[in-house]
Amino acid sequence: MIKLFSFLLFLSLIIPLNSCQKQSSNIENNIINNDYLISVTDASNYELKFSKIPEKIVCLHLSCIDILAELNHPPIAVHNMLLNLAKSDIYFGEKGKNIIPISGYGEPNLEQLLKLKPDLIVGHLAGYSSQRNTLDAIAPVFLIEIETYEDAIDNLEKFANLLNKDEEFKVAKNKFTAKLDNYKKQANNEKIVLVTNGYKGNFFIATKESLLGSVLDELTNYPWSISGNNPSAINWVSLSSEEILTINPDIIFVLVKSPSSNLLGDLRKDSFWQELKAVKNNQVYPLEEEKVGGLTTGTKSLSAFLDQIMPLIY
């Protein structure tokens, strides 16, 4: 139960200028009294307005870290459960050495936030909509939501316009779409693929309604769906062993905290896992979280994830 609570908490965390240019994604820049008024609409359809570009940003969700890494704009602070990922090479590496961890369970430490005096706080719609009024007293709150790679690109564009990072956005978008197009040309729909965050106790599976699953559904045979199950904030679900065995995947990828040299051996000893084709055929691969950016909530981590798994599928 403690393991399940910890993972659900982690999910809630990885789940708040030029006036002559036309801006997309509901962002408009207008000159008023020689000052820029920047407005942006978040996933809750709430409009945030700024009199200047927000520099000091606090990330309470992994997608915020992913976006800011693409735009080369380190946050001043992140939730403490996200700190190691933020400092990993996928995101900020050495550039993230000064990122401050924010403590708190359920609600971030308000005293810490007050001392930091951020310009913007970013959290997931599902996890922080009920806390908007409280956090708004400290700084504007942008609530984010992401289910597809189109959502990821749209979120990235919103922040690029907000932070005046148009060139960084173009580079990141073009790099990601080129990679995706290349993998689509090599798509293999013969093998059934499964991505899970664990294999003992309560673990979650990426569904095709999640960011990662939506892409794998285009590149592979990826049948896993929410189908009435209660999803996490990023649309991963807990499936029964019977549901997994019925589909019987050909290839399994398991997210792990650290390298697991004996993962396949452990699965072969388990009465359930040893029945799966992937285990019988030695097609089970561990993926270190820090090398793939965690549970994948943006274009940067999705690129890293695809680079790890697609060569093994083809």
UniProtKB/TrEMBL annotation:
PROSITE patterns membership: FE_B12_PBP
Keywords, in A-Z order: Signal, Transport
Localisation per UniProt entry: Cell envelope
Positions of the Fe/B12 periplasmic-binding domain: 56-314
A cellular component term, taken from the record's GO annotations: outer membrane-bounded periplasmic space
Gene Ontology biological process: iron coordination entity transport
Listed InterPro entries: ABC_transptr_periplasmic_BD, Bact_iron-sidero_bind
Lineage top rank: taxon: Bacteria
Predominant subcellular localization, coarse grouping: other
PANTHER family registered for this protein in UniProt: IRON III DICITRATE-BINDING PERIPLASMIC PROTEIN, IRON(3+)-HYDROXAMATE-BINDING PROTEIN FHUD
Family the UniProt entry places it in: Belongs to the bacterial solute-binding protein 8 family.
Protein's name in the database: ABC transporter substrate-binding protein
Source organism of the structure: Cyanobacterium aponinum 0216
